[in-house]
């Protein structure tokens, strides 16, 4: 089974801090994604990566950056955390191809105080 | 405007009963439509994928339908169980490989 592991289930940070969310997948998938999930808004794409060192902006990239130095690891960075970034963050990976399913991690619930 | 609309937003059903969830989309061109199940506190898990040429597909007690002409899909749950309590998310893939997500149908099964 594909396993997508997010480094923390719960995280509390203060406004202005630089925050790192880590995601690791064990199936050699080319594509990786970062989403945030908010009540009433559903899943929204922040950034995605088609392959190592490649990244593309999603629908809501403002205030975020990403890093993919190794194929199995995709990091989401909040450069200067703000309270409106309090949310559930979900990482996903997928084998290349439009018909391939995304495999999700169990999420990181991030609170910015 | 959201390109994927799901209804009802939430519903409560008795264990053993059937229910049907709806997904209407405006994504064009269309590549495929996938239903995900998301248990509380977990990430979404794929249930089924529908392509243009498929109009029905089953996965155990879950049956998905697709009408590509009217751009509608449904997910039917037969003989519901308590473990079916979850959010069901409809995701449509367009020609540019981008995904459009619905906001989900929240299902609660009560004994």
Protein described:
The complex is a heterodimer of chains A (113) and B (111). Chain A is mainly beta. Chain A is 0% helix and 53% strand. Chain A contains no helices and 11 strands. In chain A, strands 2, 4, 5, 6, 9, 10 and 11 form a 7-stranded mixed β-sheet that branches. In chain A, strands 1-3-8-7 form a 4-stranded antiparallel β-sheet, with no helix packed on it. In chain A, a hairpin with an 8-residue loop joins strand 9 (87-94) and strand 10 (103-104). Chain A is globular and about 40 Å long. The mean pLDDT of chain A is 94. The N and C termini of chain B lie far apart (37 Å). Chain B has no helices and 11 strands. Helix content of chain B is 0%, strand content 59%. The model of chain B has no long low-confidence stretch (mean pLDDT 93). Chain B has strands spanning 4-7, 10-14, 19-25, 30-38, 45-51, 56-59, 62-67, 72-77, 86-94, 99-101, 105-110. In chain B, strand 4 (30-38) and strand 5 form a beta hairpin. Chain B is mainly beta and 111 residues long. Chains A and B meet through strand 5 of A and strand 4 and strand 5 of B.
Secondary structure elements and pairings:
The complex is a heterodimer of chains A (113) and B (111).
Chain A: E1 4-6, E2 10-13, E3 19-25, E4 31-38, E5 42-49, E6 56-57, E7 64-70, E8 73-78, E9 87-94, E10 103-104, E11 108-112
Parallel strand pairs in A: 2-11
Antiparallel strand pairs in A: 1-3, 3-8, 4-5, 4-9, 5-6, 7-8, 9-10, 9-11
Chain B: E1 4-7, E2 10-14, E3 19-25, E4 30-38, E5 45-51, E6 56-59, E7 62-67, E8 72-77, E9 86-94, E10 99-101, E11 105-110
Parallel strand pairs in B: 2-11
Antiparallel strand pairs in B: 1-3, 3-8, 4-5, 4-9, 6-7, 7-8, 9-10, 9-11
